[in-house]
Amino acid sequence: MEKLFLVLLLLSSRSFVVSSANVSAVFIFGDSIFDAGNNHFNRNCSVQADFPPYGSSFFHRSTGRFTNGRTVADFISQFLGIEFQKPFLEAQLAVMNGSRKDYPSNGINFASAGSGVLQATNQDWGVISIQQQLRQFQALVQENQVDKNLVQKSLILVESGSNDIFNYFLPYGTPTLHPGAYVQAMLAEVGNLIDQIYKLGARRIALFSLGPVGCVPARALLPGAPVDKCFGKMNLMVKNYNKGLESLVDDMPIKYPGAAGVFGAVYDIVQRFRAIPAQYRFSDVTNACCGDGTHGGLLQCGWEGFKICQNPKAFLFWDYFHPTEHAYKLISKAMWGGKSSRIRPVSLKTLASTP
């Protein structure tokens, strides 16, 4: 059924699709913005979206994605003309039980919802840290279960850090670092990730900025966070982290010969949605479509007592943390073919078309 959806969508959006000759695979690292179901296959993980109404607008079932349909990684794969990447743990299980011989040739999704770029972030919830995601990738390449030539021809997508920054403002525990040092520690981990995936053959690397985390409905869970406006202190940390990410991209051509990096300015894109919502067909850019309490931010979608809106396409936020499929589609189009205010120095379409 998912293959049929893919064929129909590719036919209806040919202007976005390029030949997959130069990029035939996507490898994905990050958190719930990208997670396609890894946490579902992780029995020790309490961060889940494998129940209704998640997935209801596209897949018509829950897949472990933390939205009502496709993520940015899914849309980018469609634009490339390739199938959605399977979660690593699902692919690993299939190889181990013999239901498939090899790992998929269209890439793998390692992202785990709730994880951060700092090893300790939400580890008590059983999430897969980005360091562990890297180790999973390293093992596949080093054991020749993923061809290094495939990695060299692939696109790497990285998005992580929202959970680290949100957790900085949790009421229990006192942060041992001031905000600037905390952000620098986060950036050091991202830098190490890039170092290692480059050594494994990665040559097309996309770093996506965080969105305005201080505007998510879940800020209502934080004592002292404003509910009538975004949480300025949190967004300031996000902006500083995003600046550091862009600097990492700027340094790539010098530091990593033969590699090309792009920076996706997701923060600016989402703030534009919030500033002129009607232009993007949003009628609500404050509340969660699915949840309950203040801004729908006090209860996870699908939990007992949740409420759901009638038209998710009109909402920026699907649940207390995550955008709707409609928002993801708009972000994806900006990443794929947008101007330099959205993605720089080139778009993903240009990056993917580069020999």
From TrEMBL:
Keyword set, alphabetical order: Hydrolase, Lipid degradation, Lipid metabolism, Signal
Top-level taxon in the UniProt lineage: Eukaryota
Keyword set includes Plastid: no
GO-annotated molecular function: lipase activity
SUPFAM superfamilies linked to this entry: SGNH hydrolase
GO terms under biological process: lipid catabolic process
Signal peptide extent: 1-20
PANTHER family: GDSL ESTERASE_LIPASE 6, GDSL LIPASE/ACYLHYDROLASE FAMILY PROTEIN (AFU_ORTHOLOGUE AFUA_4G14700)
Family note: Belongs to the 'GDSL' lipolytic enzyme family.
UniProt-recorded name of the protein: GDSL esterase/lipase 6
Species of the source: Salix udensis
